[in-house]
Each structure stands twice: as structure tokens, then as C-alpha cells.
Request: fold
Amino acid sequence: LTTQAPPTYTITEDKTIYAKWSINPYTLNLDPNGGDVTSNTITAEYGDTITLPTPIQEYTLTYQTNGGNTLLNEYSSYEFLGWYTEATNGEKREYNTMPALDETLYAHWDNTNAGITLAEPTKVGHTFEGWYEDSALSKKITQTELTLTKDTTIYAKWNINQYTITLDPTGGTVNPQTITDDYNTTVTLPTPTKTGYTFDGWYEDSSLTTKAPTTYTITEDKTIYAKWTVNQYTISLDAVGGTIGTTGLSKTTITEDFGTAIILPDPTQEYTITYETNGGNTLPQEYINFDFTGW
Reply:
């Protein structure tokens, strides 16, 4: 095949002439049909060995927890079913060598197992209300599983919790006895009263070891306890002319803690009559005793 014959040939003898062929190149256009493929075309000569690429169709779900715990991204991955002659339906093509035609092939996908079960976040002091499509939290997502058709961010909505502080006056009185407010709200604790005692502060434990601030931040349901210091009181005793006990004093005091049992001493009142006889016989002294009738 070195000497080309003219297209208009003059016969002058018996002769065999031979056809010469050039191999045609063809192009396959690859439409990933929603996925991604490394190359959208394959161009090769007819019969050349080719490898149809495997596309991927995967979308990222990003959780915006709005102050909650961090959740890792999740992925909605479609299963590649093969290359087909139509975007839907059509005939499947599994070429290993270049066919003798230009052709567009479409990726087909199965999303049966591409669903993502939505995770539930947590946030201290709040209750999760649900996921929303938008940052303004106006479009609630009602389903618990999503199959994505694009990269998607969803947004958490929270309801703030309310907690109750229970005030245990430990024998005293307090008003109010409970305080209920939103998480992280700061409240001023009331001052309780108890007859015979001085208030020594609120404590976070019944053993009265951890003192609570008077300006208290509510973070959970909690009982706090009043601590008291017993007062001391003084009773002043005046025998009004008499004497008290063995002291020989007409006045004294008794100081003890509130509520302490005491015994009040009985005073005495006694006067002496002395006779001055001026030379007469001696007469013994006499005594006038007054009966104590009480304090």
C-alpha cells in the first residue's frame, strides 16, 4: 500500500488493486446526570481499548447547631448503576473498546441507601426543638431522614429550659419558697427569718459546707439551705432590795443562747432588828423574812 491508484483508472492489463483504510476516531460524551466524573469525554479510534470512568454522586449535610454540641458532617451517597443511552431508561452500555459511533451516555443512580438519619444535638440548659432549612428558623424539617440532592446545611432550634430553686429555710420562714426562671438567669435570693437566730447565708448542700452567692445563677433544679447562728440573750435580775442566791448581790444577769433552759434563782429579802437596851438586859436580834412571790 505504497502506490496510490488514481480514482479514474485506465485498464491496460490484468491487475489487482487494494483498498487502504484509516481508522475513524469517535467520541463518547459522558453526562454524570447529577454526579461528578473525572472527564466528560472519551475520544479514541474505533476498536481502541477504553475504560468508562465511575462517577460519584455525593452530597454533604452540614449541621449548624447554634450553640449546641458539634456534629460531624454526614454524606448522602448515591449508588452508580452504570452508563445508559438515555437520562432515564435507555440501554446500558459497558464498552471496553471504542464503538464505531459518537454517542452520549448518561449515568444512572440509585438513592435507595442514600438517606441520612438526622442526628439530635444537645445544648446545656436547652431542649432541642427540631431542625430547620434556613437560618431564620422558619422552615421546619418534619422528616427524620433526608436524601440530599445538593450540599445542604440545616439549623438547630432550641427552647430554653426553666429550672426551679427550692429554698429550705431549715426551721425558719422565707418568701417566696421557690424561684422558677429560665436557664442562666441571675436572681437575688431572699433573706429568711427565724426567731432567735441570725441568718448566716444560703448553702448549696444540706451539710452547709458550700455557700451560695446571694446573687444566684439558675442552671438546674436545685434545693438550697439556710444556715443560722443562734442568738445570745441576757436576762437582768433585780431583787429589789433582796439578794440573789449566794452572790449577796441584789442585781445579776444570766446570758445564754436562745432556747436554752435556765432556772431562775430565788432571791431572799431579810432584815435584822437589833435591840439597844441602854444598860438593860441583852435581847437577841430578830429577823424579818419576806416571802418571794416570783419574778
